[in-house]
Write a structure and sequence with these properties.
This protein has 21 helices and 23 strands. By secondary structure, it is an alpha/beta fold. Helix 13 crosses helix 14 and helix 16 packs antiparallel against helix 17. The longest helix has 19 residues. The protein starts with 6 loop residues before the first helix and ends with a strand.
């Protein structure tokens, strides 16, 4: 799968996503975009040249040797006869190491292969080595070594007594091996001079000179590699390709899709490089309906990502027998507003799902270029010993046991109450008791000892203080759920409950709205209370509570409204409301408007936080 063709788009489009910074950084590192230049180094005595990729073309004058990856295809051809045994032994040793081991080893190893390249800037011959710290999978598998400005090159040069030349001036306080931007030095020849140029400008000048001399060009490289999309195993989606006896391949017609795996009684290895599917000869060997040629089905299968990269699209229209989802439903539901998943999937699922979606977008099957607008990672829940829960450690908690003792709502509520969603949190079963007591208090507030609705719940307006708390609770719970701050939403509900328990008469409207606020967090209890309150349908069909912003302010004051000195009304407003806003509110009050109608307003007298007197004439 040619994911490398999408590397730039994966980087650019990520800027529009509301995803964790750490996740986007992991994807950027996985893609590994590097701006630099390709440079061709002529090989002494041969027609070939060695191409390298470097992000620091400005240091070309400091390249004193070259290093090839042991797997580089030119190693064998360039190695002189007397060193072939030594070079061969080193390549064998390197092949036994993983790329990770080769990348982190502090002790640099390598061997000289007896050949020389020519530095195109200086015209000097420089020796060619192989070393396992250079990887074939990055760049071109060859580097120009600049030990004056690269720490790994410097370690290698010091070990093997190779020249170290400084070509970038970092100032008087610069370290011995200066790796940052600076000013060019010791970088001048008859054709090009970088002396005195800042690094950014020196890069441009070097790239232009290389282009002019046909020795290289400015380019962009990616660490990302194309996606190997096959597995040698039985499970996984079979690939609908047939290899015909004349050496050609053909795709199955749509009428024969989906291609299903055969039923196998045994899943033993095939004994060859093919997957276990090769043993299902009745399934593998077929005759092509179009040409009449004999053929063999592809025995590799697709990786599991073939499904997990786009499962969300099938969820939109799961019963559709013709397409994965209808265009109309896809346009309605996509893109996904919120994706919650573990950070361990930051690259190997989430980025590849983005790529897959972009392919479908280019083919016209989906209407959005990105699948997931907003992403959040849930934190890990640790065992009671503060270590990651694991069967091998014996520190797992069976949720069925907790639910059996406290109920599903208490289990659910405690998980959300433990702390911020994204943080790692230790489990403590005793903590479930706290939220269980809260839910029990909620039940007792609504239900009397006979199991009927509490008679203290009456159709009555709340006190100003309780009304303010209600509006504050609606505002905070709504905003916290939207922001996935479930723990603080629950805290606010607990505050509301504490105040409600103090009341002799409970305002029905505010308590019904409280049940709606509680329901996403404790859905079973919410539905029970909703039915007890006399509702015949699920609370899911009711509107989410709304709040009045003016009534969420802590310090409210009552302002007297007068017309020509006579009291005509009152206003409950936030303390400190400025004069212009207070005057506007007073003139919009219905009683004031009625007594002012048809009369000329002479002036308005305001006493901050206390009084508004509208003076009118006849």
């Amino acid at each position: 799968m040619r994911i490398t063709a999408y590397a730039e788009r994966l980087l650019q489009d990520a800027r529009e996503l509301d995803w964790p910074v750490s996740t986007m950084e992991q994807q950027r590192n996985w893609i590994g975009r590097s701006e630099g230049a390709e440079i061709d180094f002529p090989i002494k005595g041969r027609m070939e040249s060695l191409r390298v990729f470097t992000t620091r073309a400005d240091t070309l004058f400091g390249a004193t040797y070259m290093v090839l990856a042991p797997e580089h295809p030119l190693v064998e051809a360039l190695t002189v006869p007397e060193l072939r045994q030594t070079v061969g032994d080193y390549r064998t040793q390197a092949a036994r190491k993983s790329e990770l081991e080769r990348g982190i080893e502090k002790d640099k190893t390598g061997v000289f292969i007896g050949a020389y390249a020519v530095n195109p800037a200086t015209g000097k011959e420089i020796p060619i080595w192989i070393a396992d710290y250079v990887l074939m999978g990055y760049g071109t598998g060859a580097i120009m070594a600049v030990p004056g400005h690269d720490e790994r090159d410097a370690e290698f040069a010091k070990k093997f007594n190779l020249p170290i030349i400084q070509v970038v001036d970092g100032g008087p306080d610069a370290p011995e091996i200066f790796i940052d931007d600076g000013v060019g030095m010791n970088s001048s020849s008859g054709e090009i001079s970088l002396d005195g140029l800042p690094t950014a400008e020196a890069k441009k000048v070097t790239a232009a000179w290389l282009q002019q001399k046909r020795l290289g060009r400015a380019t962009v490289q990616f660490k990302l590699r194309d996606w190997l999309f096959s597995r040698q195993r039985y499970w996984g989606e079979p690939i609908p390709i047939v290899h015909l006896e004349d050496g050609t391949m053909t795709a199955l017609p749509e009428s024969e899709l989906p291609l299903l795996l055969p039923d196998l009684k045994k899943f033993q290895p095939s004994g060859t490089t093919e997957s276990p599917l090769a043993l299902a000869t009745d399934w593998v060997n077929i005759t092509d309906g179009k040409t009449g040629l004999k053929g063999r089905r592809e025995t590799n299968t697709m990786p599991q990502w073939a499904g997990s990269c786009w499962y969300y699209l099938r969820f939109i229209d799961p019963a559709n027998p013709d397409v994965f989802c209808s265009a109309e439903k896809e346009r309605y539901w996509m893109p996904i507003d919120l994706y919650v998943g573990g950070s361990e999937h930051a690259v190997l699922h989430l980025m590849y799902a983005r790529f897959w979606h972009k392919v479908l977008f280019d083919l016209g099957y989906v209407s959005t270029k990105e699948p997931f607008t907003r992403l959040r990672h849930q934190g890990i829940i640790l065992g009671e010993d503060s270590r990651k829960m694991s069967k091998s450690r014996g520190n797992v908690v069976n949720p069925d046991d907790v639910i059996g003792q406290y109920g599903a709502d208490a289990m659910r509520l405690f998980e959300m109450f433990m702390g911020p969603l994204e943080e790692m949190k230790p489990w403590n079963t005793r903590g479930v008791e706290g939220v269980f007591r809260f839910l029990s208090r909620v039940w007792r507030l609504f239900v009397d000892e006979a199991g009927k609705l509490n008679p203290s719940i009456v159709d009555k307006a709340p006190t100003p203080d309780f009304e303010r708390l209600f509006h504050q609770t609606v505002k905070k719970v709504g905003e916290d759920i939207e922001g996935l701050r479930f723990n603080t939403a629950i805290s606010q509900l607990m505050i509301f409950m504490n105040e409600a328990m103090k009341l002799e008469e409970l305002p029905r409207r505010e308590l019904e709205q409280f049940v709606l606020l509680l329901s996403p967090l404790a859905p079973h209890l919410g539905e029970e209370l909703w039915e007890l309150l006399g509702h015949k349908t699920s609370l899911a069909y009711d509107a989410w509570p709304s709040f009045d912003s003016a009534k969420t302010v802590e310090d409210m004051v009552e302002v007297v409204l007068q017309v020509n000195g006579k009291v005509r009304g009152k206003l409950l407003i936030p303390q400190g409301t400025d004069d212009k806003e207070l005057e506007r509110l007073a003139h919009e009050e219905s009683n004031i408007q009625r007594h002012v109608a048809g009369k000329k307003v002479l002036r308005t007298i305001l006493v901050k936080n206390k009084l508004v007197n509208v003076v009118v004439g006849s």
